[in-house]
Design a protein that fits this description.
Structural class: alpha+beta
Order of helices and strands: EEHHHEEEHEHEEH
Strand content: 25-35%
Shape: globular
Strand order of the largest sheet: 1-2-3-4-5-6-8-7
CATH class: Alpha Beta
Helix content: 25-40%
Number of domains: 1
Radius of gyration: 16 Å
Largest sheet: 8 strands, mixed
CATH architecture: 3-Layer(aba) Sandwich
Distance between the termini: 15 Å
CATH topology: Aminopeptidase
């Protein structure tokens, strides 16, 4: 089963994706924009990570693909809490040449549609480093998320501390966004 946006498709991560995922995972420029801490990885590490992925996990990871470009990034729903109906969402777009072309917005919209309309979740949460203004504008300005908090000095990058911005969206906010924008109108 694939999850379809307007221009992207979210699909299972395949063995054939591992080489490019390892490349992105070892790119310091990409890692600078992401939360968490990343150590250099080798193909053995990424193969072990991939072999641990399974459909029964409360952590679901997807490859982001377009017909013309192939794999362009990854998206996830993590720590799915079935009792309280929420999950954490994050995403990575690989090569910087594809950024700013609508792929991220479409990925977030597809993740929200899947989470709220198929899985029946009530809310999604996320976080980002305060200097990641492009992601903040995209999630809050275009995808209907709200800034819900700030954790001071959460991330350490390039010899200084940065705040962690907490964002979230509820199912009701997503439905309001769809009603206002008609995002899914005329989609098969």
């Amino acid at each position: 089963m694939n999850i379809h946006g307007r221009i992207v498709k979210l699909r299972a991560i395949e063995v054939t994706d591992l080489e490019v995922l390892n490349k992105w995972g070892n790119d310091p420029e990409i890692q600078y924009w992401l939360g968490g801490w990343h150590f250099p990885t080798n193909m053995n590490d990424i193969e072990k990570w991939h072999s641990a992925l399974n459909v029964n996990s409360n952590n679901q990871r997807f490859g982001i693909q377009t017909d013309e470009l192939g794999l362009i990034g990854t998206a996830n729903l993590m720590d799915i809490d079935w009792k309280n109906r929420n999950a954490f969402h994050g995403m990575l777009l690989g090569d910087k040449e594809i950024r700013g072309k609508g792929y991220a917005v479409d990925t977030v919209m597809a993740i929200m549609k899947y989470a709220f309309e198929e899985l029946g979740l009530q809310r999604l949460d996320g976080s980002m480093i305060e200097y990641n203004e492009a992601s903040l504008k995209m999630y809050i300005g275009k995808c209907g998320w709200r800034e819900e908090g700030r954790q001071k000095n959460w991330y350490f990058r390039k010899n200084r501390y940065w705040d962690r911005i907490i964002v979230g969206i509820t199912r009701e906010d997503y439905i309001d966004l769809i009603d206002k924008t008609n995002y899914w109108k005329n989609i098969k």
